[in-house]
Design goal:
Rossmann fold; six-stranded mixed sheet; alpha/beta
Amino acid sequence: MLELKNINLSLKTDGRQLVDDFSFTLNRGDKAVIIGEEGNGKSTLLKFIYDRQQIQPYCDFSGDVIAKGRLAYLPQMMDEGLYQKTLAEYFGDTETYRHIPVLTQLGLSLDFILSEQKISTLSGGEKVKIQLARLLMDEPDILLLDEPTNDLDIETLERVEQFINTVKTPVLFISHDETLVENTANVILHMEQILRKTKCRITVTHATYSDYLEYRRQNFAHQEQVARKQRDDYDKQMEKWRQIYNRVDHEQTAVSRQDPGGARLLKKKMHSVLSAGRRFERERENFIEFPEEEDAILTKFDESIVIPQGKVILDFSLDKLYIGERLLSENIRLFVSGNEHIGIVGRNGAGKSTLLALIWKQLKGRRDITPCYMPQNYAEKLDYGKSPAEYLAGNYTKADITKARTYMGSMKFTHEEMTGKIGGLSGGQKAKILFLDMVLRNANVLVLDEPTRNFSPLSGPVVRAALRHFGGAIISVSHDRKYLGEVCDKVYELTGNGLALARFPLTS
């Protein structure tokens, strides 16, 4: 069991409250997911629970964490200090032979984890898998997982889903994968920043994600209906009151001095009318408020972006695909024309990101198209020492900067986030900057490596809709099942023998 008591978290930079007097109990059998928009403090809360010293440099905090048993924590990003270790060194202090079922569950072999291969050479998904394996070998009592399926291939992702569903250990996790959340979570912790990020709120619901969304929709609709009826009834009552007040006031003004008895009666009547008015005002103070809901992000590409159907976007051929000296695939062919939306899937370590980087290299020098690239590692494009405003200002005119600030506002950036360093932003906020960059450039060819991996389940549908309606071409690598199903016209699987057209949904 994990108990949180009166937790308060606030940012040191601007004093913004992320968590306000929050209490929660995680029980055996709970699969609790933390959802919320990018930058709302999800990872900060998870770090606080595991080791509050991790957030001390940027966050003030108070409250108690009571854990009955050992905590295990999977960070969103692997510590780069481990990159030069070999796999054998990383697993050196574990009884690996005793944990072969764990390895099998994650699709890892004993030979692989005992090899001299350096962690730096692993794919993003492979890094996640070895971290999960290492955590589970310690047999923890409580699991804290920050994006446990980031970069995992679909087969391993489904294995992790099965693990979360069957494990008796309580799990508190963060995920941007809507399908994972839908298939596993039985408790929803929804972190929000409402009223233009001036107020924080965490809603806890013991339900599935789809039930929570339906409950939230119905509850908000009912609350809005009651609040509106209260105000309509009040307006009608006040109109009647004003009519009575005006009539009595007129009668008071017109009463004859020769009728002091009538004047006294009218004065008494006016006192009663004024008392009723004050009572109505007190009733107004107890009105049910209209539901306060965090604004969704707003984004879309220019509708004028159109590519003729017959235009050749990519005619790519590669005889052999290597990482270092390791041969990954042969005879790779990919032809893209017009506004095709292409998805590429494959096992972790298959070379998808390497292939996409080669495709980008071929496209980026083209003058007849306007291509844009979103890498899996955002540091390849973003200067973490600059602010979002500075990053965009380096590429655009003053008019475009004004437009960029407007768009950043629609992406729910605060002024402090627009002007602070990119390195201090969450992964989702960095993704928003790259997405905004593509929108402002009016790109008509998008090369995307896991484009939705850091968007929340609430922002995800908006991003997918924007990409689905994009009039240009998309060439993308993704493990996001909703993205592949909603955005991509074709899905290819990268195998040792090249790209093969795949059916979607894929089966493991």
